[in-house]
Amino acid sequence: MGFLLGLLSALCLCAAFMRTASEPEDCARWDDLDTAVVHKDGHVVLAGMFPIHSKGVEQEHAYKQRPGRRKCRGFNLRVFRWSQAMIFFIEEINRNPALLPNITLGYRLYDTCGLEQLSVRTALSVISQPLKSWGGRCVSPSLPLIIGDSGSTLSMAISRVLNLNSVPLVSYFASCACLSDKRQFPYFFRTIPSDVNQADALARLVRHFGWTWVGTMGADDDYGRTGIDMFTAEVTKLGVCVAFRVIIPKLPSSESMREIVTIIRDSTATVIVAFAIEEDIHPVIQEIVRQNVTGKQWVASEAWVTSTLISTRENLPFLDGTIGFAIRRAEMPELKQFLETLNPLAEPHNPFAREFWEMQFQCSLNTTEPFASTTESTAYNNTCTGAERIQDTDSIYNDVSQLRVTYNMHKAVYSVAHALHNMLMCQHGGGGRGGARTLTSGCADIHTLQPWQIVQYLKEVSYTNLFGDVVHFDANGDPVGSYDIINWQKNGDGSVKYVTVGRFDSSLPLQQQLVFSQRDIVWHGAHREVPVSVCSETCPTGYRKASRTGQPVCCYDCVLCAEGTISNSTGKHSHRPDPSNGTDK
């Protein structure tokens, strides 16, 4: 035993000597993150996390050699556009002499593949990268802050890890109301409204149209389950009953999809409210089409109401008339020009450019670049030259007509930039917002910035952006709950047209929050009349309600009144608007 301990000590000493002798002056991590990264240096480097791929490929480990780089599949053009937009916004800020003067922002963008494990590991990698020496100390050029991730469940996992070091997370698409809990997520901010606003707005919309019998559907995650639960709680207060509640599994099978659609098909509820991201609801809609289920009025959450994956020509006969709430959009013509300049041959630093190019043009690039191994490759018969033009294609990548999540990304990047700008003004004697120092202990140093310091500056961010919107965070790190009401209508060519028929703004007085134009809405089946979704029709004069044992209060029989008594029933079902639940302009 003594010999073994001595040998081990000698080996450790030798290893330490070899490391010291060969170690560079700059600090370095002992391990590298096994995911592709898009990066560019700067005085301050912003980290962004995106599920550019929807799934990770499981690999077998023999534990005889170091595991290879994790491969991912399911390249998402829409999410890739979000990542490119972050680059565009950072470069836009760098060109603006009035914002962060003499400071160049860089970036490190990571693909999390939609995996909780990889998201957490990426976050740990971001906050533990001492790469440069400053004044004899190892410091990181990366800002102790992360922009991301898109999903609520992923953001919750990341936030809990970042809490350990007080590192803020600014999300552009995580809307679960649970993230407003400052006891659990004290350093979480977001530029998308909390779903507590959407649940309230959806409940009021449903009640306004007289739908008292609705089905609900949610994804099996924090976003879906919490969203449906909040909606149910709010709509029940308004006298609406829930006919069914189905949960979409994260690993859908043919059998589970058949079961869900059978429930939808057989229910007497004609209105269905669905809280799910597009990837989760997609297999359900495929089964809806397969079973030819029509006659249902869909009410969509913001995660899929403008999804091009769902709103296809093939799906329109089953989903036309869909109505729902969408996050606010913005017009960014300059972004389209930037997106269309991407070329994998000109940008070898972008490890996702090749896969994007091959997917966009359905061809294979002849290249030996190392980033080709980061994903499961798809073989195409045609060969790409690299001279193809994105301008000649039409896809969700360069379609800038519905920039909603992208607009949230704009708010996230600019909010961080304004927080840093206020910090710099404090350094140069200008004080924080309002001319006063933000930190009680004095001004922060950009080279030694601590996480808790940037949190304080983020809390005080307030600016009017290029689109005229005031951007700031409330005490929970949330923005104002503001949505467009979107209605799916059919274009002349058979495609889907997203028509804005109203809005919701939680910052306005109650009677003014929900406003829409009912005459502009086209319902399922191209009808102009509001569809009816009730369990039991209103009893006619001379009849009274008789509850059905074991069924919701919305379900009853109409029983003839006893001799000598009368009923004050209004008669037929009414769709007269309730002013407290919305205004028809």
From TrEMBL:
Alphabetical list of InterPro entries matching this protein? ANF_lig-bd_rcpt (IPR001828), GPCR_3 (IPR000337), GPCR_3_9-Cys_dom (IPR011500), GPCR_3_9-Cys_sf (IPR038550), GPCR_3_Ca_sens_rcpt-rel (IPR000068), Peripla_BP_I (IPR028082)
Q: Where in the cell is it found?
A: Cell membrane
Keywords for this protein:
Cell membrane, G-protein coupled receptor, Glycoprotein, Membrane, Receptor, Signal, Transducer, Transmembrane, Transmembrane helix
> What positions does the domain GPCR family 3 nine cysteines occupy?
530-571
Which Gene3D superfamilies does the UniProt entry name for this protein? Answer: 3.40.50.2300, GPCR, family 3, nine cysteines domain
A single GO molecular-function term is: G protein-coupled receptor activity
Recorded protein name is G-protein coupled receptors family 3 profile domain-containing protein
